[in-house]
């Protein structure tokens, strides 16, 4: 019987690329996608993907679809509690073990809550193997922790029936394949803030470092996990050890701001911790600007390396930065010094 995969967020930047990857690599799988509104070209692009209608608050729809799946791949919102609860409930209704892959993010290990790090290099690089116990016991209030906690608790309680993996990408770049969104979040929001401030910016000395991954490299982690799940879990870690970073490189905010400035034909500028904290205020999430531009978030994808031989093969950030900046400027209709992209 064909393995049954249920995927959410399949029109977005990450989830859309995951859906496209699985469909193309494994036409033999039986894939069902949750859609809250169907893109015009969905049925034509994915004629063999079944659609269930609903959103992340449609608990019954999610639960039923999960109960019929061998592998659930949940993307689209790393912070939504009712959807993960419904997917866990549904997975546990199945009479065989279900694999549940959840998209989280390395906001979890960022040092944004301590403003003394803004623009300073934090020497800690987190390993998803060596630091696994610290990662899975992060304090409440860290980004994404409230949902990770639900998954880890369910994995501990139902380990034989529910095999979980939390995929935790750093900042992502590169064109996605989602039918509705092909853009990562970082460059559009950075350009919008640059437009307000007038120049690409960093906090204080700008020495804070964040990790990055190309979306196509990230797909190798998803493929490794989905293929392992289909094979009964062989060759991967699940449950309380099933935590996967995906970083392939790390860069300081100052270097990034200077490179973006060169593309825009200007120079980068230092701003204070207070000013950086005021960026991204429109999102209504306290200290989001500090997290995005002032904090350190450095990770190593040791577990994917150990299990899948994971290493970078897509272009590095600097190789594609100009196209990334131009694409974000076009998306946001931003022009600099009269120059449109
Ligand atoms: N991009 C990054 O660099 C990055 C890195 C690490 C972690 N993350 C996290 O990954 C998550 C997804 O990011 P993304 O960039 O892929 O987002 P995205 O492009 O906005 O995609 C979101 C997807 O989820 C679907 N969705 C959202 N809310 C929904 C709801 N209530 N019901 C049903 N479907 C819903 C969207 O469907 P529609 O098409 O119908 O809107 C879309 O398919 C976010 O939580 C983000 O914090 C992102």
UniProtKB/TrEMBL annotation:
Which InterPro entries does UniProt cross-reference here?
Epimerase_deHydtase, NAD(P)-bd_dom_sf, NAD(P)-dependent_oxidoreduct, NmrA-like
For this entry, the protein name equals NAD(P)-binding domain-containing protein
Which organism is this protein's natural source? Zasmidium cellare (Wine cellar mold)
Q: Which residues form the signal peptide?
A: none
Q: Give all residue intervals belonging to the NAD-dependent epimerase/dehydratase domain.
A: 144-236
Q: Cite the Pfam families for this sequence.
A: Epimerase, NmrA
Instruction: Give the NmrA-like domain ranges.
Output: 4-90
């Amino acid at each position: 019987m064909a393995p049954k995969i249920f995927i959410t967020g399949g029109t977005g930047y990450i989830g859309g690329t995951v859906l496209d990857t699985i469909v193309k690599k494994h036409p033999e799988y039986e894939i069902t996608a949750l859609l809250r509104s169907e893109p015009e070209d969905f049925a034509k692009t994915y004629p063999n993907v079944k659609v269930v209608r609903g959103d992340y608050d449609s608990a019954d729809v999610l639960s039923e679809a999960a109960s019929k799946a061998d592998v659930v791949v949940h993307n689209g919102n790393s912070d939504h509690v009712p959807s993960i609860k419904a997917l866990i409930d549904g997975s546990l209704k199945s009479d065989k073990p279900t694999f549940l892959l959840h998209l989280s993010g390395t906001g979890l290990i960022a040092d944004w809550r301590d403003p003394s790090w803004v623009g300073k290099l934090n020497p800690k690089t987190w390993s998803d193997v060596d630091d696994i116990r610290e990662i899975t016991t992060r304090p409440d209030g860290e980004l994404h922790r409230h949902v990770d906690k639900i998954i880890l608790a369910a994995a501990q309680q139902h380990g034989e029936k529910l095999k979980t993996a939390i995929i935790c990408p750093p900042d992502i770049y590169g064109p996605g394949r989602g039918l509705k969104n092909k853009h990562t979040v970082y460059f559009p929001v950075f350009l919008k803030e640059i437009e307000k401030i007038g120049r690409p910016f960093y906090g204080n000395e700008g020495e804070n470092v964040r990790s990055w991954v190309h979306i196509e490299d990230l797909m190798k982690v998803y493929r490794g996990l989905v293929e392992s799940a289909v094979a009964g879990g062989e060759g991967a870690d699940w449950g309380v050890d099933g935590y996967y970073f995906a970083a392939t490189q790390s860069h300081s905010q100052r270097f990034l701001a200077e490179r973006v400035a060169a593309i825009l034909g200007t120079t980068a500028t230092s701003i204070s911790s207070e000013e950086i904290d005021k960026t991204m205020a429109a999102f209504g999430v306290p200290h989001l600007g500090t997290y995005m531009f002032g904090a350190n978030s450095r990770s190593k994808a040791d577990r994917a390396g150990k299990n899948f031989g994971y290493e970078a093969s897509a272009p590095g950030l600097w190789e594609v930065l100009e196209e990334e900046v131009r694409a974000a400027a076009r998306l946001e209709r931003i022009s600099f010094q009269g120059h449109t992209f």
